[in-house]
Amino acid sequence: MRVGLMASAALALSIGLAGGDALAAGKRVKLTGELVDSFCAVSAIMYGYGTAHHQCAVWCAVGGVPVGLLDDDGKVYLILKVEGEEANVAMPTLINIQTHRVTVDGELHVRDGVNYLLVSQIQADEGIVNLSHKEHGIVPFGE
After folding, report:
1. Is 39 part of any domain?
2. From CA 131, how far away is CA 90, in angstroms rounded?
């Protein structure tokens, strides 16, 4: 149920951002960081589980949980669209490079303190460079 709600919210936001007249001008940005499952990035629930985090992030992306970019400063940017993708949810481009360290060029929109990113181009893909996330420690379920 939660995944469906998150997917619906991501779709609604992307439709709202694509609305044209209602869209405030975005800021052109070039960002580098790790593609992450946005739920894990906020809750840190899978960090500390090593490569299990990668598989979880892939499953979450396939299930419609928005993919985010965790930049080197610790900011999370929710990716609403990748140019050339037909889907707004479960985008194959992002699923195939989930948890990779990438550099993207895109348009940043900030609304109510949340960073939204419309990706124009993935400029670099370094692959998976963070194999363990040990720096986050393990967050037990329910605590």
Report:
1. yes
2. 23
**Predicted confidence band of residue 123 (pLDDT cuts 50, 70, 90):** very high
What is the C-alpha separation between 82 and 129, in angstroms, rounded? 22
pLDDT of 79 > 50? The answer is yes
For residue range 44-61, list pLDDT tens digits in order: 776 656 556 788 888 889
Question: Is residue 88 within 8 Å of 11, Cβ to Cβ?
Answer: yes
Q: Within a domain: residue 127?
A: yes
CB 139 within 8 A of CB 45: yes
| Domain ranges, residue 68 | 2-18+25-136
d(CA 129, CA 75): 18
